[in-house]
Amino acid sequence: MSFYPSSILNLIRNISRLPGIGEKTAERLAMHILRAPRREAEQLARSILEMKDKTKLCSTCYALSDSHICSICSDQTRSAAILCVVEQPADMVAIEKSGSYKGLYHILQGVLSPMNGVGPDKIRIKELVLRIEKNMVKEVVLATGTNVEGEATASYIAQLLNKYPVKITRIASGVPMGGDLKYVDQVTLKRAMETRHAVDF
């Protein structure tokens, strides 16, 4: 790509550093930005800088926010009695998109991973306990991932909260809707069997 001028090469290099974007995609995006009106390029540059300047963590749940308290924590219509614990802001967004949950969240900003040096003090577990001690939380929904780290984190939190008068639940996991059993992995199938429930007719 040495036939591109250095300004374009620099942009391609910077875009290709983004996760999931290879050199060819970065080249296409750079060419798109080059052909776009200057106003659009300026809007893109400004939006990136604005995001870097304004985005912070909500002081209550640790979601991404432009203000001290995020829009979910400040929403008076949501139930403060139920708290959904997730690993990352993207997990909260996924649950919100489902439209199935109207409580509040607590974002751990990671999972326990002793192999990588991530212990309880490296994620927001202490803050979770403080929220439960200070607020009228009646149920904690553990919605961490179903991989080894996610399961270990959920188990650790469940044991930690056992001494508090709160109901502790875990999101169900198993065979996806429309899934064909012969293509489902063994761990998922095992969980589906373990969490089976009665069928109402």
UniProtKB/TrEMBL annotation:
<keyword id="KW-0234">DNA repair</keyword>
<dbReference type="InterPro" id="IPR000093">
    <property type="entry name" value="DNA_Rcmb_RecR"/>
</dbReference>
<dbReference type="Pfam" id="PF21175">
    <property type="entry name" value="RecR_C"/>
</dbReference>
<keyword id="KW-0862">Zinc</keyword>
<feature type="zinc finger region" description="C4-type">
    <location>
        <begin position="58"/>
        <end position="73"/>
    </location>
</feature>
<dbReference type="InterPro" id="IPR015967">
    <property type="entry name" value="Rcmb_RecR_Znf"/>
</dbReference>
<dbReference type="GO" id="GO:0003677">
    <property type="term" value="F:DNA binding"/>
</dbReference>
<dbReference type="InterPro" id="IPR023627">
    <property type="entry name" value="Rcmb_RecR"/>
</dbReference>
<dbReference type="GO" id="GO:0008270">
    <property type="term" value="F:zinc ion binding"/>
</dbReference>
<keyword id="KW-0863">Zinc-finger</keyword>
<feature type="domain" description="Toprim">
    <location>
        <begin position="81"/>
        <end position="176"/>
    </location>
</feature>
<keyword id="KW-0227">DNA damage</keyword>
<keyword id="KW-0479">Metal-binding</keyword>
<dbReference type="Pfam" id="PF21176">
    <property type="entry name" value="RecR_HhH"/>
</dbReference>
<comment type="similarity">
    <text>Belongs to the RecR family.</text>
</comment>
<dbReference type="GO" id="GO:0006281">
    <property type="term" value="P:DNA repair"/>
</dbReference>
<dbReference type="InterPro" id="IPR006171">
    <property type="entry name" value="TOPRIM_dom"/>
</dbReference>
<dbReference type="GO" id="GO:0006310">
    <property type="term" value="P:DNA recombination"/>
</dbReference>
<dbReference type="InterPro" id="IPR034137">
    <property type="entry name" value="TOPRIM_RecR"/>
</dbReference>
<dbReference type="Pfam" id="PF13662">
    <property type="entry name" value="Toprim_4"/>
</dbReference>
<protein>
    <recommendedName>
        <fullName>Recombination protein RecR</fullName>
    </recommendedName>
</protein>
<comment type="function">
    <text>May play a role in DNA repair. It seems to be involved in an RecBC-independent recombinational process of DNA repair. It may act with RecF and RecO.</text>
</comment>
<dbReference type="Pfam" id="PF02132">
    <property type="entry name" value="RecR_ZnF"/>
</dbReference>
<keyword id="KW-0233">DNA recombination</keyword>
